[in-house]
Amino acid sequence: MSFQLSPEAIAAFRSPDSVKIIATVGKDGAPHAVPKGLITILDDGSVVVYELLETSQTQKNLVYSIWFHKTVAVTAVTPDHKSYQIKGVPQKAIIAGQLFLDAYDKVQKLLGEDVDLSALWLITPETEREQTFSTRQAYERAAHPYEIHIDHITKEEYK
Amino acid sequence: MATEEKIRKPKIDPDWRKKEESFFEILKKYPTVSPFIITQIDVQRRGVHYTDAALARLDPAIHQITKPHFAVYEGRGIPTSLLLRDGTSIIVSETSTQTWRDPYLIDVVDGKTVLVDEDRIIDEVEYWEKPQFFDKTTSRGTPMKEVLDARPQRYSVSMSNYCHFWAVPGHGCKYCGIGAGGVRYKGKANERFNADDLRETMLELVKEKGRFVGVILTGGSIFSGNEPFDDELEGYIAALKVLGTVFETPRFPSQVNSTAFNRKQLERLYYETGLTSYTTDLEAFDERIYKWLCPGKAAYISYDEWKRRLYDAVEIFGKGQVNTGIVSGAELATPHGFTSEAEAIRVDLEEAEELASHGVGLKHDVWNVVPGSIFWNQNPPSLDYYVHITKGFYDILQKYRIPTYMDSYRKCGMHPNVNLDRI
Ligand code: SF4
Predict the structure, then answer these.
(1) Cβ–Cβ of A67/B34 closer than 8 Å?
(2) Quick check: B13 pLDDT over 90?
(3) Who contacts A50 (Cβ-Cβ below 8 Å, separation ≥6)?
């Protein structure tokens, strides 16, 4: 895999304590962002999304994305409020075979036998960005120092 | 990359590529149709040939394998079918190498199994993996893979291997290889399914968690009984009752694809079993062509009566739980088929709209010219025709809001217009 994810992003996505979100678009162009319990990173750097519902909007949008080469975004937010966003294009939907059956077994052990698995989506990362607020603020202030309300730079005695 | 020298191509038209738009031109022409579905259609239309390197990747311990009829593989098994990266199945067999066009190649490049045309890689493919019950036998000694067949997410029952239409000269459907080959089962112990074998195989199948999402029951037509096709109906009811014993819910994901039953028969099928969906294929969306392609069906059930029975089925099973299909392309066969693709498309879509307006779902098979069928020497139409029909059926189903889950890429995989309905 040509694009290398940072160790921090990988750790955030692999941590069971992080909140993970996937954002996709479908054929109507409307964005759809939802929390997903099971998103992780494989050793080869691929993002794996476990889609549990065959008829969900995310599943439809992931199919749309693999068909028409559309980008999806996944975000992991750690308990200490650091957040990492990865964007990429779905590469494969694993819907059968031993890999799928192993994942099916894992899902049922983690979430209970009542839970189904529709597909295991492999997403090839193309970009990564830390989205932690303090990091983004520092970056944007340095890049665009004049795009703020002036009270942020007004002398204390004149406020 | 391998050469195509070993492919059996007795009557390939050397100029066929000059006479129709290419795969890549069609991709551009239909930007809203999934490239994966266009790939599925074209591979089903033209067939595949496996190189030695591709066959070396076939593992009998893992994959579903078919014994080919043609000497070109020197007795070696070939993959039963293929899977694309998005989960779309390509239902393709070596029989398609009989077409007048070059088949695609399945080869190995840079460690990947790939679909190739004219030295250009189209995409990666996978071979289907077999279920565990395929290696088991029933207590009667029947291999379980002969009791239930499998695709990546569905299992199937052949209720009857012998179609009675072939008992009357000239009554078999002209594109059909099943019926022609099925004569050898007539009067044999395996002419119909065995209930004990089916029960035992089901008990093994349901141990494979996460493997299957539904069943289809189909088979040849059986016109005997108190009323025509009553014996066929009894066969499906008996098989469904056996399947139903393993489920805790009264209904279970299932489809019967049979001759068109009358209202009384349909009500029995629905109320006496756990069946959820019903298909009966008109095979052609034009009365004249129907009579020519399917003379046996037409002798028992008129075209208009077949349609009426479909409308009855929608009332009983519900909208989205009933569909009908055509063997698309066969309506262009010679000498009595339509003489232009444009006319075939117009007629197919007009009738499709009429059926959908009554709540009947639509599906089409890419006509696979089967050796042993009456039409063995014919040639399917262009890729443009197929993509046009695929998009046309899909648009009509969207317009009439008819769900397609009963025959989805998971529960069948064969029908491009239904496979398109995943977004
Ligand atoms: S009804 Fe027609 S298509 Fe079906 S098995 Fe008989 S001959 Fe073949």
Answers:
(1) yes
(2) no
(3) A36, A37, A38, A39, A103, A107, A117, A120, A121
The string of pLDDT tens digits covering residues A115-145 is: 999 999 999 999 999 999 999 999 999 999 9
Name which of B160, B157, B163 is nearest B297 in CA terms: B163
Q: Which CATH superfamily is domain A7-132 in?
A: Electron Transport, Fmn-binding Protein; Chain A (2.30.110.10)
Q: How far is the CA of B128 from the centre of ligand 1 (A)?
A: 26
Q: What ligand 1 atom has the least distance to the C-alpha of B175?
A: 3
CA B188 to chain centre: 25
Report the residue of A46, A55, A95, A109 to disrupt the B interface, i.e. the one with the largest count of B CBs within 10 Å.
A95
Could you tell me the two tokens for B390? 């695929």
Q: Kindly state the percentage of chain B with pLDDT values over 70.
A: 96
- Give Cα separations from B188 to A7, A15, A30, A74, B193 (angstroms): 65, 61, 58, 58, 11
Which run of H or of E encompasses B114?
A: strand B112-117
- The complex's ipTM? 0.94
Domains in chain B with CATH codes: 16-127 (no CATH), 132-422 (3.20.20.70)
pLDDT of residue B94: 64
Q: How do residues A25-82 score in pLDDT, each as one tens digit?
A: 999 999 999 999 999 999 999 999 999 999 999 999 999 999 999 999 999 999 999 9
B255 closest CA partner among B62, B84, B399, B410: B410
Residues of A in contact with B126 (CB under 8 A): 97
